[in-house]
Amino acid sequence: MSIDTRCREQQSVADQMFMDFKYTRPGSQEQVRALSTLSFLVGMWSDFLVSEERRMSSALTLEARS
Questions:
Q1: 14 Cβ partners below 8 Å, 6+ apart?
Q2: Domain segments of the chain: what residues?
Q3: Of 25, 30, 39, 54, which has the maximum CB count within 10 A?
Q4: Is there a contact between 19 and 37 (Cβ–Cβ < 8 Å)?
Q5: What is the secondary structure of the chain as a DSSP string?
Q6: How far is 50 from 9, CA to CA, in rounded Å?
Q7: Which of these, 16, 48, 53, lies nearest to 35 by C-alpha position?
Q8: Cβ-based neighbour number of residue 53 at 10 Å
């Protein structure tokens, strides 16, 4: 899955997080949920980027052997 595709998949989640965080009272359940979701997504992106780096490194290694 490309980074672009992943971004498009998460756009509605990001929009909802923004709305929940910006337009609800400080410390509300919606804000806590938005922060929890953000934390989860940051971890997910970290995993994705690590695997993408590994994939690209492997591809470059194969290309160098050719």
A1: 41
A2: 3-65
A3: 30
A4: no
A5: --HHHHHHHHHHHHHHHHHHHHSS-TT-HHHHHHHHHHHHHHHHHHHHHHHHHHHHHHHHHHHHH-
A6: 19
A7: 16
A8: 10
Q: Which residues contact 21 (CB under 8 A, 6 or more apart)?
A: 30, 31, 34, 35
Q: What is the pTM of this model?
A: 0.71
Taking the chain (66 residues) in runs of 10, the rounded mean pLDDT of each run is 86 94 94 94 92 89 79
Tokens of 29: 């359940």
Residue 21 CB coordination number (10 Å): 18
pLDDT at position 40 is: 93
Position 57, amino acid: S
Pick from 13, 33, 12: nearest CA to 24 = 33
